[in-house]
Specification:
It is built from 5 helices and 4 strands; from the N terminus they run ααααββαββ. By secondary structure, the chain is of the alpha+beta class. A 4-stranded antiparallel sheet has the order 1-2-4-3. α4 packs antiparallel against α5. It is elongated, with a radius of gyration of 31 Å. The mean pLDDT is 82.
């Protein structure tokens, strides 16, 4: 290696050394300096936000009201109409909503069996084994409305088959396991 470097022209050697120093400085900057710059910029933004909040201290009640409205909207989006329901009413409410949605989409709700699921982080899981019968597109619309009406629900298990194997245009029967989640803090 030393023999190769000794044969190089001084200008090329200077370029190689410059490029090496540039890459070393770039990597040091990227790994050591840049995180510090980001932390500084974040602290500066936080300081500006705090200073702005202090300066507009008379506006604090309206900011709190806006924050409460946003929280209420998020709760509605996450839990749907179940947001303010007591724990002992949730199963009955969901079963009632399943029936209403089924009527709307000409789906026969053949059975619903609620059960307790497993706790997941800070959420209680409520499971519903649901049997429905209807046309494919009606079932599809039923599932979409189910998600819109009940908030955050998950289809954990899904099985669909024709009601009558011998007919070409037979209705479908579906067995679903629907999971609804509720925060422990609710």
């Amino acid at each position: 290696m030393t023999a190769y470097l000794a044969r190089l022209e001084p200008a090329k050697l200077l370029i190689i050394a410059g490029v090496t120093i540039f890459f070393a400085a770039s990597s040091l900057t990227a790994t050591l300096l840049w995180p510090q710059v980001r932390a500084y910029l974040s602290a500066a933004n936080s300081r500006e936000a705090i200073q702005e909040a202090i300066n507009s201290g008379g506006d604090l009640p309206s900011q709190l009201a806006r924050s409460r409205e946003q929280l209420s909207a998020l709760n509605k989006r996450l839990y749907g109409e179940m947001a303010n329901r007591p724990e002992n009413e949730i199963e009955a409410y969901i079963i009632g909503q399943l029936q209403v949605i089924s009527w709307r989409h000409q789906i026969e709700l053949a059975g619903v069996k609620p059960s307790k699921g497993v706790p997941i982080d800070m959420f209680h899981e409520i499971l519903f084994d649901v049997d429905v019968t209807g046309d494919y597109f009606d079932l599809y619309a039923w599932l979409r409305e189910l998600n819109n009406e009940l908030g955050f629900v998950v289809i954990k298990k899904y099985e669909m088959r024709p009601l009558d194997q011998h007919k070409e245009d037979s209705q479908l029967t579906a067995k679903l396991t629907i999971a609804s989640y509720r925060s422990e803090q609710q």
